[in-house]
Amino acid sequence: MSDVRNIAIVGPSLSGKTTLVESILFAAGAIGRKGTVKDGNTVGDSAPEARERHMSTEVSAAHATFEGVGLNIIDCPGSIEFFAETRNALMGVDAAIVVYEPVIERAATLGPIFKFLEQNSIPAMVFINKMDRTATLMRDLLPAMQDVAETPLLITQVPIRDGEHVMGYVDLITEKTYEYKPGAPSDVIEMPDSVREREDEARSLMLETLADFDDVLMEKLLEDEVPSVDEVVGDLRIAFGQGKISPVLISAAELENGVRRLMQEIIDWTPVPAARAELHGLDGAPAAQVLKTFNTQHGGKLSLARIWRGSIKDGDTVNGERIGGVYHLLGSHQDKVDHADAGDIVAFARLEHARTGDTLLAGGDVPDDAASYPRAEPMPHLYGLAIHAAKRDDEVKMATALARIHDEDPSIHPEQDSDLHQLVLWGQGDMHLQVSFAKLRDRYGV
Rounded to two decimals, what is the model's pTM? Predict the structure, then answer.
C-alpha cells in the first residue's frame, strides 16, 4: 500500500520517544490533547508497569492519518534490558526514527541500535530531541554519534540560535528558514545573516554526500550547477531507502518543534511497504507475521502483526485458528476494522497459539517459506533469579501466569533447574525481572 508508512520510534531511555509519539498523534488529530509521561496518561506506556516506572517496559502501537497517509507507529522501550522487544518489532517496520537527546557523553548508547538496524537493512533517520534546552553544538555532537554508526549521518537541518535558545532551523533541502511556534506549524522567515555561512557549508556537505550515490548529481556539482529541490529529494529518498544514509533532523518534541516536519519527511522519504516485502522476496498467498503479543485483562489475547502479503479479514482462518477481530491500536484503545491489506500493521484477536515472530498464513498451516520472513534472533539469557510462589496453592497459577508472560516477552524464560530443584526465571537484567514480578503480583494475583 502506497498510502501507509510503518515506522518504529527507537532510542535510549529518557530521549523522549513516548513524548514524540504523543506529539505526532496530536499533530495528526488522532488525540484531542497530549498526555505526559510524568502524569501517566500517554497513549504509549499504557501498561501499569510502565506508568509506575515512568518509562517504557514493552512495545506499544498507535495508528494515525496525516495528509491522507496512514501512519503505523511502534513505540519501543529504551532500556537495553527490554531490547528484545524492540528487535522483534523492528522486523516488521519499513524505517526507524532514532530519537536522541544532545548529550555527547551518551552517544555510545546508540551503538546497539545502529548495529541492529544496519545488520537488518532497516533505513533510519535521526531525530535530535530536546534542542530547546541544550547548548551542545551539532558540529560537536555529530562526530560522537558517527563513531558508533557505520551509515553516514547526514545533517538536513541547521539550527538557528538566539544565545543558547534554538528558535528555528534552516532546511538544507529547500533552503527555507523556519521559526518554531509551540503547538503549531512553524512560520517561514527570512534567513538570518548569522546562519548563512553555516548553511552554505552544511548544504555543500549534504550534496557532496548524496553525489556519492548519483553520478548525475556529481557532474552538476563539478560544473557548479545547482540541483533542483526535486532532484535533491529524489536522491535523498533513494539513498535513505537503500540504507546508504541516515538523515538527521532537530527538534523539541514536547513543544512540537520540528514534529510536523518529521511527519512530512516520514511520508516523503520512508519506503512504501511493498518495497520492504520485495526486498525479502515475499509474495504469494495472504500472510502476516506477529511482532508482539499482548495478553489483555479484559479483551483476551492480541497479536500485533505486519501483513506481508494479500488481505486478511476478520473471521479468516490463519494457521488453523479463526481470527476473532482485526484492530488498529492506539495504545490500549482498539479501533475495529473489517480487514487489513498488505503493508498494514494491525492486531488480531484470539489467536491462542500464535507466538511473537510466528508467520500466519491465511487458510492453512505455517507456510513453507516461513524462514524467508525477517525474524530477530533470540537474545541470550543474561540474568536469572530463583523464584517460588509464597503460597503453595498458587504454584499452578504461577506456572500459567509465567507462560503468558513468556508469551508476551519471549526473552523472559522460566526454567526448572533439576540439580538445584529450583525454578529460575531468566531475563536481561534485574529491572526486566522486576517488571515480570509486578505482572505476576498485579495481573495474576501470585
Answer: 0.94
